[in-house]
Amino acid sequence: MISTIVLERVKYLPRELEPGILYVSEEYAVAGHLCACGCGNKVITPLAPAEWTLFDRHARPTLRPSIGNWQLSCRSHYLITNGKIQWAGQWSEAQIIAGRKVEQQRREDYYASLNPNHSFLHWLRKLARKLFGL
User: Fold this and answer.
1) DSSP string covering 75-131, please?
2) Within its chain, how far is the Cα of 117 from the centroid?
3) I need a labelling partner for 123 at 20 to 30 A (CA). Which of 19, 25, 34, 53 fits?
């Protein structure tokens, strides 16, 4: 397990990642690191308004929202804040499903806000989801 992570800006993410380094390609809007639990799996996060956001303070990265590696066998869950790994609790399957729905809704809301002509249709879909659980 690692407890700290430093920021390294790159054009391309390297094929081999080093533990304790958050590689960030601003050109391709992506960040990557090895899972903080030490399992060796690569964790890739897209950087975009409806995805993850990177903050940099003296090469000490903060990445939001949290990293939930639900598809990995380690199922690790943590935050990266000012270059420190903050471990978060494990989530149940129901929490993971609910979290994915919230993420999807955040994406849909963001992209709908970019196109005001589709806002009524978006509102209608959102209402149908609430009423009928779609």
Assistant:
1) --EEEEETTEEEE-----HHHHHHHHHHHHHHHHHHHHHH-GGGHHHHHHHHHHHHH
2) 29
3) 53
For 33-37, 51-55, 127-131, which range has the lowest pLDDT when averaged over its residues? 127-131
Q: What pLDDT sits at residue 58?
A: 87
Sign for the CA dihedral angle at 21, 67, 90, 69 comes to negative
What is the average pLDDT across 39-66? 93
Enumerate long-range contacts of 49-58, CB under 8 Å, 24 or more apart.
Answer: 49/110, 50/106, 50/107, 50/109, 50/110, 50/111, 51/107, 54/24, 56/7, 57/82
Q: Averaged over 35-49, what is the pLDDT?
A: 95
Q: Is the pLDDT of residue 86 over 90?
A: yes
Burial of 22 per CB tally in 10 Å (0-12, 13-18, 19+): buried
